[in-house]
Design brief:
The chain has 589 residues and is an alpha+beta fold. It has helices at 3-9, 49-62, 107-113, 115-123, 135-150, 165-169, 224-230, 233-240, 252-269, 344-350, 352-360, 373-394, 406-416, 425-441, 447-462, 527-535, 543-550, 563-580, 585-588, and strands at 11-12, 37-39, 71-78, 83-91, 94-103, 188-195, 200-208, 211-220, 290-292, 308-315, 320-328, 331-340, 480-488, 499-508, 511-520. It has a five-stranded mixed β-sheet with strand order 1-2-13-14-15. A four-stranded antiparallel β-sheet has the order 9-12-11-10. It is globular and about 90 Å long. Mean pLDDT is 75; it is low at 1-62, 163-172, 272-288 and 293-298.
Length: 589
């Protein structure tokens, strides 16, 4: 029995979309050998007819109709500040990826505009809405994709050439009315929000001795050039002890956003009167994502660290929890949650930890919250890590630990030694993109970013396709992408209903080189467990990364609190290997 007959025996499945981002040097159509796609065989399990219908609807909705040959196409559109150039990969009449090759638009707005890419791919259509607050940039991306696929040129003028429409789309204003300042302010740290050029803008205002002592911009969606220019008015506010100041020319919208945010913060600190008649007075400066002391003047601490905002991350229940801790006058004034993937109901309960830390001004002897043990433990450890950062800053030690670049450098060296003429154009283009990303990651300061670059480059090397295909005949497994579905069954320690887990597994040169599209058909509450099992956390390596490192689902550690999902992924990989195994000579006869 030859390979073709083996392929017929295995249940075929529609080709899985491969992640293939190409560099700017790749233009026109790329073509080459495409790996076969099979479905791993297993015993059929009855599925409700309604579920089948829903899945069929999704497949129909996602079906593309672009009458183009498989390959990569390049196009250009007009954004806010200039041209936007993209590459679009077509496979089986579908858009499988869109890569931004170049853009002149401001990074903050352009990052928001890229949301249209997911809309285009998901709907397989160019008839999608632009992104609010980044209208011209998102319109430019859509036009560039259209140019790539149809050849139609975008002859429109840039957003800069059109009077003020982008700022209006951002929901901001060009001016602020003068207001009557409050008679006095309560000492403490207050947070306020406004709307800048690109969207929400948040500031932290410190009041000391009844006066505005400092103002810091802690969050904004504006570009760095605009916000840096607008921030010069902060000195004017402090000097005048008033928000009735002039906006900065060339950064009007960002200036207005800062003034609005400062007034919002001051309205909470006002002893009598209000700093902005248009803002509602709100004396409670805490919510589900932040907490500060309700009476700043009475709480004093003995935290021996330099004033500032410090950041910490730790493992919660479903993933990482990150916080920002504000220290002023040896006192923890506020703790803000900057990242959290735990269930909202449990995490809100865990927020009692924040109140206890601010009330006692210490992290020792603070008990976890009953019913939210893992979330509260993660929150407490994140606060402790932020305070460790504060200690380093106080002692003059660097807070950014240098990442380990050993594996990344070795992979880059290995990739640079490969010869282009031995591999197909498509797989080589993907490798070059990942190689460029890896070289940029050499300058990164975060280990997590470096680790991701290592995984992506490692996968790209493993997915290289030989032009002559000689290696394929000597392999134990038939290379290709397989879709498999397995059951995720609860054990005696778990409390969830059995569900089906589906994923795509790619085999290349007798190794598993990619595991993607991992989804479950059960309750949405299972999603966090699947994500945890696949990707792990900052302190636990996910099973996907472990399998790809070894190339096989052997000697893999399951992820704690996601054991069943981990085992289901491992079981799926084993089923794929069984289905992909080549028949022996005796079996072929």
């Amino acid at each position: 029995m030859d390979i073709k007959e083996t392929g017929k025996k295995l249940k075929p499945f529609a080709p899985v979309l491969s992640v293939a981002l190409v560099t700017a040097c790749v233009a026109g159509s790329l073509s080459g050998y495409e790996a076969p796609v099979y479905a791993a065989t297993q015993e059929e399990t009855p599925i409700k007819e309604e579920t089948k219908e829903k899945k069929e609807e999704k497949k129909t909705a996602a079906k593309g109709s672009f009458d183009l040959e498989d390959g990569v196409y390049k196009g250009t559109g007009t954004g806010y500040a200039g041209n936007i150039t993209v590459s679009v990969q077509i496979k089986d009449k579908q858009i499988v990826s869109i890569d931004i090759l170049s853009s002149s638009d401001d990074e903050a707005f352009f990052s928001r505009a890229k949301a249209v890419i997911d809309k285009i791919i998901e709907g397989q259509t160019l008839d999608v809405d632009t992104v609010s607050g980044a209208t011209f940039s998102s319109r430019g991306i859509i036009s560039a994709v259209k140019n790539a696929l149809t050849g139609e040129k975008d002859n429109s003028t840039t957003g800069q050439a059109q009077s003020g429409q982008t700022a209006a789309a951002a929901g901001s204003s060009t001016s602020v009315a003068k207001v009557e300042d409050a008679a006095a302010y309560k000492d403490g740290t207050y947070y306020g929000s406004g709307t800048g050029f690109g969207g929400p803008l948040k500031v932290m205002v410190e009041i000391s001795g009844g006066k505005i002592a400092s103002i810091q911009i802690v969050e904004n969606s504006d570009g760095s050039d605009y916000i840096s220019k607008a921030a010069s008015l902060i000195d004017s506010i402090i000097a005048k002890q008033s928000t009735n100041v002039d906006t900065v020319s060339g950064a009007t919208y960002s200036s207005v956003g800062i003034i609005q945010a400062v007034r919002d913060a001051l309205s909470q600190a006002a002893v009598n009167g209000t700093s902005d008649g248009t803002q509602d007075n709100n004396s409670n400066n805490s919510n589900n994502n932040s907490s500060s002391d309700d009476n700043n003047s009475t709480v004093t601490g003995t935290v021996p660290y330099k004033e500032g905002i410090y950041y910490g991350t730790a493992e919660g229940y479903s993933g990482d929890v990150s916080v920002a801790v504000v220290i002023q006058e040896k006192t923890i004034k506020a703790i803000l949650i900057t990242e959290n993937s735990d269930d909202e109901a449990f995490f809100n309960r865990a927020m009692d930890i924040v109140k206890k830390v601010i009330r006692t001004q210490k992290t020792d002897d603070v008990d976890t919250v009953s019913g939210a043990t893992y979330s509260s433990k993660g929150l407490l450890n994140a606060i402790k890590n932020a305070l460790k950062q504060a200690k380093k800053v106080t002692n003059g030690e660097p807070i950014d630990e240098k990442p380990d670049l050993t594996d990344l450098k070795e992979l880059i060296e290995r990739a640079e030694k490969l010869e282009e003429d031995k591999y197909t154009e498509t797989s080589w283009a993907v490798l070059q993109t990942r190689l460029a990303d890896a070289q940029e990651a050499l300058e990164e300061t975060k280990q997590t970013i470096v680790d991701k670059a290592v995984e992506k480059l490692k996968t790209a090397i493993a997915q290289l396709e030989s032009k002559d295909g000689k290696d394929e005949g000597n392999t134990k497994y038939v290379s290709g992408t397989y879709e498999v579905t397995v059951s995720c069954t609860s054990d005696e320690d778990e409390d969830f209903e059995e569900y089906k887990l589906t994923m795509s597994v790619e085999i290349r040169n007798d190794k598993i080189v990619s595991i993607t599209d991992i989804t479950g058909d059960g309750a949405s509450s299972n999603d966090s467990y699947i994500k945890r099992a696949a990707n792990g956390t900052s302190s636990i390596k996910g099973v996907v990364s472990q399998i790809i490192d070894k190339g096989m689902p052997e000697d893999i550690d399951t992820v704690s609190r996601a054991t069943c999902s981990s085992n289901a992924i491992l079981e799926g990989c084993k089923k794929v290997l069984e289905a992909a195994e080549r028949p022996t000579d005796m079996e072929a006869e």
